[in-house]
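Morning, I've got a small favour to ask if you have a moment. I owe you a coffee for this, so here goes:
>
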Amino acid sequence: MAQPVLSKYIKPDVLTRLNQFKVLPRELVEGSLAGAHKSPFHGYAVEFASHREYVPGDDLRHLDWKVYFRQERHMIKQYEMETNFVCHLVLDISASMRYGDDDAQKLLYASRMATTLGYLVVEQSDKVSLTLFDNEIRASLTPSNNMGQIIRMTESIDDARAVNKTEIAPILREVASQIGRRSIVVIFSDFFVDLDDLEDSIRRLRYNNHEVVLFQVMHHDELHFDIDGMVRFIGLEDADQYLTRPRDIRDGYLEAMNRFNESLEQICDHNGCERILCDTDNNLGETFALYLQRRMAARR
């Protein structure tokens, strides 16, 4: 069972496109393994633990020159009691995420993003957790850096059913109450929620010094509304239906959508968060590669 489910969410071509990138925290982290990320702590008695390959942005003071002269490889020394990080993935499985067909469905696209990011984090020996939610938490996996975590993630996602409305604010507050040390919290959703409530919950995460990343996953139709003919719009999270010509309401719809996205962007700017707008028509590997490239450049 595990292999077919895994292949549904993890695509080899996407991993190949991303194998040159590392998921690196932008801010100070707290952890138990050293060398990969900056730590807010100083003065620890540390002992050498292992090596890992150098990546751009690493402190050159930790290069092991003996290894370089023997093998001509740039290796970083890792020490006990320095840092690793935990990446908490929070995935919206509400009914509005069902929109779209095949690979362009929002929930499938967001699920592939979450599992791919989780794979990258685990591969570099950091920990990842997963929370699935709609109007309440539907599944939760505690942090692990074992590759079996990715199989557990894909199985949990595949078992989920998108039928209820989104209630993101109380979910994020609950997640915040369960996270101890500084972490990265990555949220995958269309964010069709009350933005004031969303901002309150983001503020709590930021107050606790967590890094927050919002992947806003939208279908091409939602972003551009280039739909023709007479169309019946059926609500995914309520019973409302509307029969209309999209061209008659396109300008008003796009104006409202632009206001919504601008408000969400302002919330992220005000609270020091990242927001990445994802069109499900775009190649997932390219979307991720551009983001990770910008992230690594900003860290340097």
User: Anything to note?
Assistant: The longest strand covers residues 137-144. The chain has two domains: 2-21+85-299, 30-83. The longest helix spans residues 246-270. The mean pLDDT is 85.
